[in-house]
Amino acid sequence: KSKALSAGKHGSDLLLVTLLLADWAACRGLVANEDGTVPPEGKGCRALRMVIPFAALVSLGGNAMRLTSRPRRDEPELDQDMEMGEARE
Description:
Blueprint (H helix, E strand, L loop, with lengths): L6 H21 L15 H26 L7 H9 L5
Helix pairs in contact: 1-2
């Protein structure tokens, strides 16, 4: 197995980390108004907090699929049969 970072395998994880860092940068020090409304500068923070759960679920799902999948085996006979138009059963 290759230990290199690839966007196909770890793209959702990288997106989640990016969103969490953006959330930390945008939302630190923001406090809601006394009446509970969000100040105008806090709308981006609120939007990020709505997106982060979905990014977390996608990341968890991808990691679960990667951890529970069987490793691929190279079967050269199968590749040759498929090229000839024959299917193995």
